[in-house]
Amino acid sequence: MALNSLGREIPESYAGKPLIPYGDPYAIRPQGNVAARPLKRVNPGHNKRLSSLREAIEASGLKDGMTIATHHSLRNGDFLLNRIVAEIAAMGLKGIWIASSSVHPVHAEIIPHIKSGVIAGFQCGVNGLIGEMATKGELTCPIVVRTHGGRARSVIEGSVHIDVAFIAAPCCDEYGNMNGYYGPSACGSLGYAQIDATYASCVIAVTDNLVPFPVVPVSIPQTLVDYVVVVDRLGDPAKIVSTTTRVTTDPVGLQIASYASQVIEASGLLRDGFSFQTGSGGISLAVAEKVRNAMRKGSIKGSFGCGGITGYFVDMLEEGLFSALMDVQCFDQEAVQSIGRNRAHQEISADMYANPFNAGAVVNRLDCVILGATEVDTSFNVNVNTESNGYLLHNTGGHSDTAAGAKLSIIVAPSIRGRLPIVRDRVTTITTPGETIGVVVTERGIAVNEKHAELKEELVRRKLPVKDIAELQREICRVTGTPRPLEFEDEVVAVIEYRDGSIIDVVRRVKE
Amino acid sequence: MALNSLGREIPESYAGKPLIPYGDPYAIRPQGNVAARPLKRVNPGHNKRLSSLREAIEASGLKDGMTIATHHSLRNGDFLLNRIVAEIAAMGLKGIWIASSSVHPVHAEIIPHIKSGVIAGFQCGVNGLIGEMATKGELTCPIVVRTHGGRARSVIEGSVHIDVAFIAAPCCDEYGNMNGYYGPSACGSLGYAQIDATYASCVIAVTDNLVPFPVVPVSIPQTLVDYVVVVDRLGDPAKIVSTTTRVTTDPVGLQIASYASQVIEASGLLRDGFSFQTGSGGISLAVAEKVRNAMRKGSIKGSFGCGGITGYFVDMLEEGLFSALMDVQCFDQEAVQSIGRNRAHQEISADMYANPFNAGAVVNRLDCVILGATEVDTSFNVNVNTESNGYLLHNTGGHSDTAAGAKLSIIVAPSIRGRLPIVRDRVTTITTPGETIGVVVTERGIAVNEKHAELKEELVRRKLPVKDIAELQREICRVTGTPRPLEFEDEVVAVIEYRDGSIIDVVRRVKE
């Protein structure tokens, strides 16, 4: 057991692998080479079509203890992972690791297969019941939570090797060329799957929309795809890009958005060339709306919008407020349609989006990112993985990646959530280190990290309610009271890997 | 010394590496993994811009004996390779290997640096004076001639490692995102350079058109690019896409084209889904014109056009005769403009185009390819590398790749060239094995490989002048006389690598 630089106790190893305690966001230099998949040979006349998932799994050579992956661009509408795990179980395989880009509540269906030992653990974060049950001690399966960039890094550096990648391919030809732009299960960008296709030993394209050769544009090329399987449906289109992408109407949310947009204006970043990322939550979109209005008013021509892309950003691109969108995943149907028709809406891989171990990711070029939090501590450390009950419920996404990359990362959150204060002495779990967070905005005030002293001064000058973060905490706790600390067992049920592979925190079993 | 399966004497090693004699087009199975470049880390705020080529070469760590590469999409208009070699010479480096995708006559400027030992040799084929001088014994520099697919293979499997790739980037941002679509040196597809960028230890983007971040569409991403250098001019736009892409008006050429197009019609391949490649020569284009007319007449909707792309194929795409173009290099300005505006005009890497060692290249999907020849023998083996004087003058290009991939490969050539017969007992150099050639078309008759017995029958039925290839040879030689055999020294000045890495032939020094 060692303390990392944020004071969290990190065990020496987890799931059989030694752990490196987190030090700082930028120091670790990668050693060695990128991972390498096997060379292949496919001669003319070869047929890649197989008749079923079962046949494809058999052909892939999947064996006990190996690792599989799917992408999460179909989100909670995904049918594929459940079907694969059911087939694997039916085949009698055991001890399979899942290294998908994310796992969603819909995948709770695989829980019996975790209990039976078909699934050994997760080389990825999980959303929903699986994490909750693990935290309660009801499931035994190691979980290594990774950022989007960190997941790309782990596969590219080879610390996670995907034996068989199953790629849900919304538009695919018989030779494996695919994109996510068209078809009943269109999801837009295949930015996560591009990594799997490039580094997995075996790649199986699974489609419900087989079209004549060749699919163009090509998002993932035939050269990487071993087998092609047609299924009836990849997912439930109503849930594939399901995020509610509506601007909040809640007065608290609107107040937060107003403050956040004023912070951006005060930062001096909102000038020609401005680059920006927001999530798809109601507050984030309210910030985006205010930023859009400010850009219109100031005739500001931005550079790029980034991340998970919503119709909001599509509108800003089409209006000329951005010159490009850099899209690792589409959050709504407007984004899906845009990426299929507009070449300035650029599909990017998770590597290009956020991997810290390449010659420079897109997050490095961000001026400003708007991020959420379940908790923040007085050192600006942020938790998005666990809720205040200690349950692991959320994957990290691009949170730590964009925070580390952007010139200014802004946390927007209501000061009170579920009667609990957002600002804590100590967050339940550290997802993103405070040294990469610029500003925390609540409806009760704005806390600025000391690293941004000039910005703080400017906010004060503009008469915005700037407060010391400890002061903000006290003010909130006067309303909520001081929450009783959670109690945990020693048992580690998940580790939170920082984007560079070091361990920023662990999740322990909650005491009943 | 061993005989390969085509009876050519292959030395045991060349330039310090053991040689594998050619066996057959499809048998060699690759072993091991794809090559891996070093992991990198670039933190936010890092500046990739360097002020000169010299500074970039210094930063790259280039040392004596290392290997550099450029791409040849600027063809005979390229300024970059000459400038790099001049800088390397000025820095006092020695023994540098060139592994460019091709070398053109304009690069004869580096000959003094070969003589002085700055340049040790070529891990690629060469066009023009360098090969000629090597064949005459006037230059000592090993030359390993590779097909476009074989060159991609050699880099991807790691048998050739590029230490520093210099990428002429017609449209580039300061972080290294680039495409070839726009700018004064626009060349269209960067299909060759994509390989270099992905596998080289160090990647330097060189541009004469630095544009604001981010370049979209991204053909080569920032994640692969270490440095960015701005120069005044990358090349001479008048020569960058310089190929004369005019249909021949020569009656002999038109006769050949007419026969070739009738062969295609007789083959049964010219139906919906037809896929096709031609070069940019006058006869090839005449064939394309006739095929286009036949497609119009028959209301045939083709699948894709492939290869080096000309305005001819662009017109066919826009007319709906193809649903896509798969473009590894643009042969003219019409193609450059099309790839920049039409997403059905798909940029593909040399890996995707023609590498035999991946999960399936585009050439595997070709129905028909039209190819040239300097000589053909009575076993259908084809020479495109040397002329009948024995001089190594031409690189292989995609010749052997497409011949191996396509269902039907057709050689079009005048029966007599420079008073010499096109059909020989033995070609000076074997570039492409006869077992991958379907038909040889001359104005004096059509020879069909026995592998295509049904096609031969159909051509006879259609009363086309089908002749046994030996008979065709005799008929031509009655006009030309039998040429005197060339005489060679034992010294091997170049090896002709087949696409799979085996050696199909060698080029020996010509006896004076």
From TrEMBL, chains A, B:
The gene is citF. Its EC number is 2.8.3.10, 4.1.3.6. GO terms for cellular component: ATP-independent citrate lyase complex; cytoplasm. The keyword Nucleus does not apply. It is found in: Cytoplasm. Coiled coil: none annotated. NCBIfam families: citF (TIGR01584). This is Citrate lyase alpha chain. One of its GO terms (molecular function) is citrate CoA-transferase activity. InterPro entries: Citrate_lyase_asu (IPR006472), NagB/RpiA_transferase-like (IPR037171). Keywords: Cytoplasm, Lyase, Transferase. It catalyses: citrate + acetyl-CoA = (3S)-citryl-CoA + acetate; citrate = oxaloacetate + acetate. Its main location: cytoplasm. GO terms for biological process: acetyl-CoA metabolic process.
